[in-house]
Amino acid sequence: MNRPFRKSFIFFLTFVLALSSLSFNAFASSTVETEIDPERLLVVFKSESLPNDVNEIISAAGGEITYEVPQIGTVEVTTDTPASFLKEIMNNLNVLSVGPSQEVTLDLPDFNEASEVASSETPIANIWESGYQWDIEQVTNNGASHDIHKDARNEVVVAVIDSGFDFNHPDLKNHVDLEGSRTFVPGTEGVTDSWDYNSHGTHVAGTIGAEGSMKGVAPGVTLRSYRVFGATGGAQQIWITDAIIAAANDGVDVINMSLGGTRLLGQWFFTDPETKETISGGNSAADYVAYNRAIRYAVNKGVTIVSSAGNSEQDLKSPAKVAEWQNANRNDGWEARGAVFFVPAQIPGVITVSATGAGFGTEDRLAFYSNYGNGAINVSAPGGDLGPDRAGGSKYLVLSTVPTYMEFGGRGPEAEALFGKGYGWKGGTSMAAPQVSGVAAAYIAQVLVETGQKPSPNQVQTRIQQTAVDAGQTGYDELYGHGIVNAHRALLNSRK
């Protein structure tokens, strides 16, 4: 793992200030002086390595390095004078571009309309046979793919870049790699490590490979956590790119990223709030370049990368319109000029997954929140929604594992009433991506058994697309891509 400059106190102070900002105005007065938070910037160098004098370069421009990923020539910097920093740093011939270091959040759709599901007198002991896992049933043809070369799956490692795991969950503990898991959240290393205090990561892990009362798509696969989110679901992009590099160096086979945000392929411009001068951050937006380098690094090491398409109901084929949408929602002095993409979903080399709803006798449909777009979606997978009329209840969402030590890790108390602690419903493209990661892992295991070698990322993606179940318009379409992923079809006659 890279050894970033851990600024635990700064991180804690920033977190406290973020929480307190909601109520600060009620107590502020003209006699109270407040300190403005330093600007957090991403600096990308022309070389995919850092200059030997990187600290001196950043310091001379008026900044301080808080995190670095040397394999992709990227550092995160804080500065109290962003305008002058930009002017100075862009004069350095080693620097490619500078932009805002944007936070990534676990932005799940709003399901407040969901109604409760009737509880049972005693918890259901066998969730898999209860009929509530409509998503896994669909993807595995009612479990027909579960036992195909299952014994080889422990040799396939899926990295979940997310909020961590409950390593003691009864449906996960036999297949999670606690020793190999890591945290990239500053201030948590050696304290909370890669345990999950949000529930998102544990839910994703269960969909990929749970084996117990519930079952994932690929039971038996080895799951490894690369934690980038704190309990409140916030992460800096550079932590994520660091985790991608680390997972690739660790030799994982699949990376699941049920996360994302918008990033610019173009130029960032910052307007000085005092002088109103507009300053360019360079011709190649730093945030997009950093993601692109990290993805390419991992794919070149043989890693298959799967990402959620996003939950913003956006048409991803129109990056200029996405740029307009993003700029309309910014008030931080930065303006994106060019094409804005959802990343990592739209980075070359990533399998991008839109979300469907179905189950309980209803037809497949694009989930109401899912992003879509011609050329942007590779495949789709169950992500859950509220049923065909948006009033069908939580059962139309995706049921999976949640931390046993959290109260109601999924939607509301009804899952605990039905199944006991450790299970919950969630919905989103975040829940669709791990369905595809599970299929990828199962397919890699099968090819390993049959040929003695693991397939390349391109071979895995091709197989997943070729064996997806067509939905919507015949052939490829903007909603479902090549179709709804199917593990059983992917594993049948895999060498053909």
From TrEMBL:
Subcellular location field: Secreted
Q: Which Gene3D superfamilies match?
A: Peptidase S8/S53 domain
Question: Which residue ranges does the record assign to the Peptidase S8/S53 domain?
Answer: 154-483
Residues of the signal peptide: 1-28
The record's listing under Pfam families reads: Peptidase_S8
**Catalytic site positions:** D162 (charge relay system), H200 (charge relay system), S430 (charge relay system)
State its cofactor: Ca(2+)
Q: Which InterPro entries match?
A: Peptidase_S8/S53_dom (IPR000209), Peptidase_S8/S53_dom_sf (IPR036852), Peptidase_S8_Asp-AS (IPR023827), Peptidase_S8_His-AS (IPR022398), Peptidase_S8_Ser-AS (IPR023828), Peptidase_S8_subtilisin-like (IPR050131), Peptidase_S8_subtilisin-rel (IPR015500)
Q: Give TM segment ranges.
A: none
Main subcellular localisation? secreted
Record keywords: Calcium, Hydrolase, Protease, Secreted, Serine protease, Signal
PANTHER family named in the record: CEREVISIN-RELATED, PEPTIDASE S8
Which family is this protein grouped under? Belongs to the peptidase S8 family.
Name of the protein described by the UniProt record: S8 family serine peptidase
Organism per entry: Halalkalibacter alkalisediminis
